[in-house]
Structures are given as structure tokens and as C-alpha cells.
Q: What sequence folds into this?
């Protein structure tokens, strides 16, 4: 994706398409992804890049072992 806004719009379209065919698993997955993207955007309003799933996860869970950053 070019930007987080593009990714959010893509997820919204895909959620509607998945609902139309009754794919509830995909709907749940995309809704969780969309929720994370929206929260990431709220936390970083000046940042327009499309974050990776790890960036979103670490933004929402900064104390997770996968997200720790050690200074040398």
C-alpha cells in the first residue's frame, strides 16, 4: 500500500466483500486488522506510511517481548 489511508480503505472494501459471501473468518480477521490500523493512525497522525503488522502490534503492545528495543 502507498499509505495507511489506502490500507484502511482497502480493508473496508474487503470486509464488505467478505460479508457478501458469508466468509465470517475473513471478516473477523480484517476487522481486527482495521481496528489496529485505525488506532495506529490515531497514535501517529503525522505518519502517513503503511505500517507493517509488527509496527501495529508493537504500537498496541509496547511491552511485548517482540517489541523491546535495547540500547547498547
A:
Amino acid at each position: 500500500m502507498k499509505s495507511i489511508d489506502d490500507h484502511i480503505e482497502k480493508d473496508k472494501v474487503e470486509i464488505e466483500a467478505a460479508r457478501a459471501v458469508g466468509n465470517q473468518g475473513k471478516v473477523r480477521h480484517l476487522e481486527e486488522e482495521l481496528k489496529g490500523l485505525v488506532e495506529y493512525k490515531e497514535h501517529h497522525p503525522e505518519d502517513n506510511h503503511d505500517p507493517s503488522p509488527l509496527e501495529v502490534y508493537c504500537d498496541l503492545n509496547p511491552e511485548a517481548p517482540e517489541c523491546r528495543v535495547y540500547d547498547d
